[in-house]
Amino acid sequence: MHSVALALYDGAMLFEAAAAVEVFGIDRSDLAEPWYDFRVCGPSRGRVGDWLRVDTPHSLDAVVDADTVVVSSCDVEIGPPPGDAVDAVRAAHERGARIVSLCTGAFVLAEAGILDGRRATTHWMHAALLATRYPRVRVDPDVLYIDEGTVLTSAGKGAGLDLCLHVVRKDHGAAVANALARRLVVPPHRAGGQAQYVTAPVPDQAGQYGLADVLQWAQAHLHEPLTVRDLARRAGMSTRNLARHFHRALGVTPLHWLHAQRVHRAQELLETTDAGVEQIAARTGMGTAATLRRHFTRAVGVSPDTYRRTFRAPG
């Protein structure tokens, strides 16, 4: 049997740990024989979330000889992940184990040096911190998960379950993974990436660089065919000077920001109205449905129709 070890540590998050237990820890031999030899490893009476303590049957030493090690998420705001977990995961990787991190579990892998030079992802809210804290990691904040062969990382929360199902698909085939997804009442594979779940950024530094007025004005006139020259005229700057201010305040070009605002407005309209794609294209200044679909799909990772089916507010 293929052995899977769930690596817990004090402060590990409950949701991702539960997802791994649900997928790998319950006997599914009616779907595939054999299933997995699953073990939970961690410190005695370690905290999982803020609600409970767990008596794990195995210490973190038992992680080292597993075929696959699943690393649960951690609280990345309080500092580096626990050293004993980092050492155990590093030893398992050096021995040749497949390492699977869920959500912010990527920080454990990064601390262990496993992600150096590799593409990796994590929860979109913490992707910038991962990139800053571990500059040798090639962080991709837009995808649901990344499979680099023996090292796999997922985005936040529900994406951890997506990655667990992907591992089952690799090990046992699509039919088994699809059957398991039906039992869990989740899609076997979700379209798009994290971009469809990211909230619109708030330009905190806009006022400092004299952009607050032009940003508010542009957002109120997104239905018009605005250009960068229009933004510069409103701000009383040259287009070159406007570009410098945008880069300093927001880290993007004026055109990139303008496209992003049009897409965010389209997301709001898709979620809250019954307007057709052609109407939404007009109300966001994109002109035609084809232009909207092209820019929306490029930015969000799914088509407007798929996005609406996923996020449409009831009633």
UniProtKB/TrEMBL annotation:
Q: What UniProt keywords are attached to this protein's entry?
A: DNA-binding, Transcription, Transcription regulation
- From the record, give the transmembrane residue ranges: none
Determine the domain of life of the protein's source.
Bacteria
Pfam families attached here?
DJ-1_PfpI, HTH_18
InterPro entries noted in UniProt: DJ-1/PfpI (IPR002818), HTH_AraC (IPR018060), HTH_AraC-typ_CS (IPR018062), INH-QAR (IPR052158)
Ranges of residues in domain HTH araC/xylS-type: 212-310
Coiled coil as UniProt keyword: no
Question: What's the protein called, per UniProt?
Answer: Helix-turn-helix domain-containing protein
